[in-house]
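Weekly puzzle thread! Below is a chain. First person to post its structure in token form gets bragging rights.
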Amino acid sequence: MVAETEDDIAFLCKYPTMLGHVLVAPKVHHEHVVKDLTEDVYLQLLALVYRVARAVEATVEVERTYLLSLGSQQGNSHVHWHISPLPPGVPYHEQQFHALMAENGVLPWTPEQASALARQLRAALD
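Winning reply:
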């Protein structure tokens, strides 16, 4: 767990392809990132995305931060945003969607390493 508000939650990706990959989602189930949310709810969710992305950038080395709302009816239909920090020096052909795809490899890390990173991110949010 990285952050939580009354309505939204942010947590580390279980199978990250980049160090600091965080998911941000509303607690209430919504399936469409635009039509299922009021403007106020959408902007509140994006405010948390922004705050967490800034904490990620303050915690891990980042060349560029990717922000995406992904999912599908066949996979994860719950609205969520990905905060994916691209580290410096990644060759162009391994950036963007390539860098996000688990098929190209995930980070080998332990629950202890994830907990330590989550603590650092929470501290950067304060």
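Puzzle host: Confirmed. Bonus trivia for everyone else. Helices lie at 39-59, 97-100, 111-125.
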